[in-house]
């Protein structure tokens, strides 16, 4: 039962992350279009909205990696692997003694 | 169940596409930022300016914000075309042409995109302003021309055109939309302006001056027999001054403006808004027409 609940929670988290990313991306694109239009209406010189596109874009991309590539458990799984490895090392040291 | 699976798959694909789109936006933004920074550096870092040093070849682009060029050779016809900015042409005693220019704009990019072209084709010297559509840059010209020039054509959209010390016998064709036009001496003259004033000194055979809302003020001196002078305005006043020897068939028409003439005239037709007659022997022809402006012919 616990295992099932844990899996459900995990699936819920992944789904939430995915929906959150899609929402984030839509807002990102809409705001960028608005900023680009404002920039080019009021001053046709330096395109300052590009800086916002770059910096905000990095955060959106991190959101994407978290939702689709690591699926919210990337670092957690790494942590678990490292703990396992440390435990194995400690066990080996104990046996040698 | 199958429907839910399909929806889930579609959402997954959309998410992947959005993710890739984000990556593309990041890369493109980065590229454009770098390119923009390099473009803005053109004005401040001399290293970016080397490629503009083209020597003495003609038909080249001159991206400096301020500079001058000299042109040697014989060019009877000079043509200057500008969009925004003043054009000043001076006559001088040297035997070469000197073109001074100053570029201004709201941004460094607008100045950099603004290119000046100097072309020489046969007896023609053509000076042009080239820029992409929407460029808000302004170029001001100061051009010095030698005596042997025969014809000057200057056109601008928003900017005044001024000619000083031009040698007698030079025909002039001057057009602008919103600037004033001034020439202190001209042979055959064609001047057109929409809202700017026109001021001239005419000594030739053909004179045409047209404006919509600007005023016309001119001096006619030593007209040749058979000279034809036509001046027109919609709402601006027209004031002409001539010397005592002025002699012409005169036709003055104004719909609602006042008409006055200081010269003794043999009146052929006089009615409301119209005065026709002969001044002196009537060697030339003077036609003045305006809708609501006043007409005044005075003595020097």
Topology (SSEs and partners):
The complex is a heterodimer of chains A (97) and B (300).
Chain A: H1 2-42, H2 49-69, H3 74-96
Chain B: H1 2-41, E1 66-71, E2 77-81, E3 87-91, E4 97-104, H2 108-113, E5 115-121, E6 124-130, E7 138-145, E8 151-156, E9 161-164, E10 171-176, E11 181-186, E12 189-193, E13 198-202, E14 206-211, E15 216-220, E16 228-233, E17 238-242, E18 248-254, E19 259-261, E20 265-271, E21 274-279, E22 284-290, E23 295-299
Parallel strand pairs in B: 2-6, 2-8, 3-7, 3-9, 8-10, 9-11, 10-12, 11-13, 12-14, 13-15, 14-16, 15-17, 16-22, 17-23, 18-22, 19-23
Antiparallel strand pairs in B: 1-4, 4-7, 5-6, 18-21, 20-21
Biggest sheet, spatial arrangement of strands of chain B? 5-6-2-8-10-12-14-16-22-18-21-20
* Structural class label of chain A: mainly alpha
Helix content of chain A: over 70%
Order of helices and strands of chain B: HEEEEHEEEEEEEEEEEEEEEEEEE
Overall residue-averaged pLDDT value of chain A? 84
Mean pLDDT of chain B: 84
Spatial extent as radius of gyration of chain A: 22 Å
Amino-to-carboxy terminus distance of chain A: 41 Å
Instruction: Report the uncertain regions of chain A.
Output: none
How large a portion of the residues of chain B is in β-strands, by DSSP E? over 45%
Structural class of chain B: alpha/beta
Into which percent range does the helicity of residues of chain B fall?
Answer: 10-25%
């Amino acid at each position: 039962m616990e295992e099932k609940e844990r899996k459900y929670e995990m699936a819920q988290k992944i789904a939430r992350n995915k929906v959150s990313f899609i929402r984030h991306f839509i807002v990102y694109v809409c705001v960028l279009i608005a900023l680009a239009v404002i920039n080019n209406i009021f001053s046709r010189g330096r395109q300052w909205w590009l800086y916002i596109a770059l910096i905000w874009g990095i955060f959106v991309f991190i959101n994407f990696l978290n939702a689709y590539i690591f699926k919210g458990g990337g670092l957690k799984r790494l942590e678990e692997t490292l703990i396992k490895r440390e435990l194995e090392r400690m066990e080996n040291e104990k046996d040698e003694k | 169940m199958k429907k839910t699976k399909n929806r889930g798959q579609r959402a997954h694909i959309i998410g992947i596409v959005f993710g890739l789109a984000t990556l593309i936006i990041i890369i493109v933004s980065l590229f454009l930022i770098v390119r923009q920074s390099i473009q803005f550096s053109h004005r401040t870092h001399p290293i970016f300016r080397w490629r503009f040093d083209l020597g003495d070849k003609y038909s080249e682009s001159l991206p400096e914000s301020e500079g001058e060029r000299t042109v040697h050779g014989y060019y009877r016809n000079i043509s200057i075309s500008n969009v925004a900015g003043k054009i000043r042409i001076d006559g001088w005693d040297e035997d070469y042409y000197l073109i001074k220019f100053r570029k201004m704009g709201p941004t460094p990019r607008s100045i950099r995109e603004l290119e000046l072209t100097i072309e020489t084709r046969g007896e023609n010297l053509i000076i042009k302003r080239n820029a992409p559509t929407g460029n808000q840059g302004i170029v001001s010209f100061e051009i010095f021309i030698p005596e042997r020039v025969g014809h000057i054509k200057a056109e601008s959209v928003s900017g005044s055109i001024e000619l000083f010390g031009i040698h007698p016998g030079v025909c002039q064709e001057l057009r602008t939309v919103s600037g004033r036009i001034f020439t202190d001496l001209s042979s055959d003259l064609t001047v057109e302006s929409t809202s700017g004033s026109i001021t001239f000194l005419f000594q030739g055979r053909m004179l045409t001056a047209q404006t919509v809302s600007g005023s016309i003020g001119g001096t006619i001196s030593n007209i040749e027999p058979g000279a034809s002078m036509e001046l027109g305005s919609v709402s601006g006043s027209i004031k002409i001054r001539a010397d005592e020897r002025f002699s012409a068939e005169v036709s003055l028409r104004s719909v609602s403006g006042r008409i006055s003439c200081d010269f003794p005239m043999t009146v052929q037709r006089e009615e409301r808004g119209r005065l026709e007659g002969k001044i002196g022997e009537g060697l030339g022809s003077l036609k003045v027409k305006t809708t609501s402006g006043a007409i005044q012919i005075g003595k020097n």
